[in-house]
Amino acid sequence: MPTKENLYHRGVLDRDSILCAGGCDLVESSQHLFLHCNIFGFVWHLIYRWLSISAVVPSQVSAHFTQFSVSGGIGNKRRSITQVIWFATVWEIWKERNNQLFNDKQGTVAQVVDRIKSLTFRWLKAKYVTLPFNYHGWWLSPFTMLGIG
Questions:
Q1: Which pTM was predicted?
Q2: Is the pLDDT assigned to residue 140 strictly greater than 70?
Q3: CA-to-CA distance for 58 and 36, rounded, in angstroms?
Q4: Helices 61-69, 76-103: crossing angle, 10 deg rounding
Q5: Which pLDDT score is estimated for 43?
Q6: Are 10 and 41 in contact (CB under 8 A)?
């Protein structure tokens, strides 16, 4: 990922330009940005709460993907859905980071989470056309709505 730390190591940015876009005054690495930033990492707290999952966030992004994919059970349907939610969360965090850096616009963590809920609903509805769930139910309790909670 072209995080600031990565761009610094490639000689694109200087040392004074590698702090996180979230304003937490720490180096913007993938692990920091997506998992441990006080701003962007807090998105995961709200996603876990939405899904009724309790977990300790691992230090590495790849370990987080593995852990999140099997959170609360390893059924294939649930794993597929948690993977979609994980990818949507990372995508929305990345988009919010870029929006702050390049467009000087800052959304709230709650707005990012709302976009994740909306995006995952649309992605899953497109993939599983016959799934009997509605937007309101998805918004409140996705796994309960799907009968796999």
A1: 0.90
A2: yes
A3: 9
A4: 140
A5: 97
A6: no
